[in-house]
Amino acid sequence: xxxxxxxxxxxxxxxxxxxxxxxxxxxxxxxxxxxxxxxxxxxxxxxxxxxxxxxxxxxxxxxxxxxxxxxxxxxxxxxxxxxxxxxxxxxxxxxxxxxxxxxx
Amino acid sequence: xxxxxxxxxxxxxxxxxxxxxxxxxxxxxxxxxxxxxxxxxxxxxxxxxxxxxxxxxxxxxxxxxxxxxxxxxxxxxxxxxxxxxxxxxxxxxxxxxxxxxxxxxxxxxxxxxxxxxxxxxxxxxxxxxxxxxxxxxxxxxxxxxxxxxxxxxxxxxxxxxxxxxxxxxxxxxxxxxxxxxxxxxxxxxxxxxxxxxxxxxxxxxxxxxxxxxxxxxxxxxxxxxxxxxxx
Lengths: 104, 231
What we know:
By secondary structure, chain A is mainly α. Helix content of chain A is 75%, strand content 0%.
């Protein structure tokens, strides 16, 4: 599939998830239970991106020793929990990562 | 001042503080997309056509890992399934609109605009209140397109050894900061992460994002149910 076709399909599915409920929904279709479960979607999906990017190397093998990403991610997470601030989380993670690879 | 315009401005005003974290997110997207090998026009096209930060980064991540198109598209769908919730929540406020407006509003229904307009919709009964979501959405749109563009420009100057791809897990980590304090969320986060990491090499077609997401969501369904029984 060409890159453009891939981009268009991704755009289409993104649009449809936004549009379908606005266009079709009858109120009773979504009860509180389904709403509650859908509220867990970020917690269920984002770690599937986060964990492999931290613990695996480029070829998909475990990289648990000499891996500055693990320490940097832990620092970012702690700063995130304390500050509840998105920018502080990203910056503290990147800063500690650079500190670990360039300074130490 | 026309009422629609006033509500539109209120939408811009309300969503603006939430735009600060979008700036690094957009820059990172632009830089990485060029790094992975998409052309500047394709990168800009992604931001214009998809217009969803998490979706676009998942697209890049899986594309660079060699996943098939079908897996990339369905993973983007999985990431986007939270929008079903947003749509369902705001739909009762938009039910009288013409179809064209529903299409326009849907395109702009991103996380930040949803969060602010949903608060506004609950308080107001005004028939022009959808202009709040329109204003908030356009604000997000302008910031996202501008930062994507800047990222594309910057991407040419940023050395590879900075390891900027590490910004991807960090940005997603940052989006979960509110969830680390809730026990069920923490369990769901750990399950999803472990399934994805151990499944990375074994789940066919790089569909590990979907397998991990579904497993974790089922866990959430079970845990919330158990939690209610105990109350």
